[in-house]
Amino acid sequence: MNQSQNQVNKKILLAIGGGIAAYKSADLIRRLKERHFDVRVVMSQSAKEFITPLTLQALSGYPVASDLLDTAAEAAMGHIELARWADLVIVAPATANVIARINAGMADELITTTCLATEAPIIICPAMNQQMYRNQATQDNLANLAKRGVTVWGPASGSQACGEVGPGRMQEPQEIAQQVELFFAPKLLQGQSILLTAGPTQEAIDPVRYISNHSSGKMGFAIATAAIAMGANVTLVAGPVNLPTPAGINRIDVQSTQEMLNAVMLNVDSHQIFIGCAAVADYRVDKIAEDKIKKSTHDMQLALIRNPDILATVANHHPRPFTVGFAAETQDVEHYAKDKLIRKKLDMIAANDVSNPELGFNADQNALKVIWTDGQQDLPATDKQRLASQLLTLIVDRITFSQDHQQ
Ligand code: PMT
Fold it and tell me: Is residue 332 in a domain?
């Protein structure tokens, strides 16, 4: 079953609170629909000041309800039916007011009543002024809701509509849609442990300089996030990147290739799958200078020596995990990837054409050609989070296939 088949008919009830971030709801509906979710909308009276029901109706394809005591809306699909219809309720934006009222169990308007009447999981996406968010009353309300099983996504930090800076921005629609997709991910990796490398490695030249590359870690972190959502235990060995640790992941930070190799080999025996997504520096400086090298009027030459190959070391380890490599290439991508698959004795390789600056290194999107000994599959350009889920689904397929053919 592919990712989008899994989402067909999943029903999302989007409850829009009355904050400036309500304007983002239009984009959120679009991104959820792109992912084949069925979306219905309820909104507070004050949300109508920020975005019209007509816009939301056009995008969702359903009438939008905003009034608890609206006879026409109740005749079409009443609030109790709506609450039962949903597989997931997302309150976005969730203002301080709506959060407090959901926490208090109020039932005097549509959003809170729906939250009270639903058996579906509830996601809250806070959006408010940073001081209102920091206020102990809001924090207590959120903590209390979390204790009752409500999930909170965000808020993000940054500049706010009111001109202040701090936490309280609603997560971006793209990010919320990705998390919804992960929320419904089939638990194909339940009971499996995945060891994964991500980001670049850095090789010191002297105390202030190093050799590295453009890897941001986004692809590897997306794989880690998707693997957790699919039920795996994940150990992520990360080179120097500027990314937050996805929830539930055991993260080991390293700098050099040798450190990455050490961390991987220390953990390899307790994992069934290894994915080498890191852009590992192939060379390191032969002798790292103890002090900062002073520049002179002459050119300078650095002696470089080969680094160990982490992926090949894992593939030669006994017993070895199901071993997946990446191949970042700018030309003859398939040819070089196949060569690496055979030479490094891998189970699978993800060929990554990095000649297009819109994809691959440091981009939000990527495309892969996944190759194994007797087959291959193209995963066309999409956001790295979705691509990560697709890659993991393929890995599970291959593992299942080889297990079936060993019996
Ligand atoms: O991090 P992002 O900005 O999101 O970018 C993602 C990415 C482009 C880095 C990623 O998708 C990718 O392609 N990673 C592999 C990069 C790479 O180093 O490719 P390679 O063809 O040089 O190496 C082949 C494989 O051997 C890789 O799995 C690599 O992790 C591994 N390797 C390489 C050298 C080495 N000394 N040890 C290794 O384990």
Answer: yes
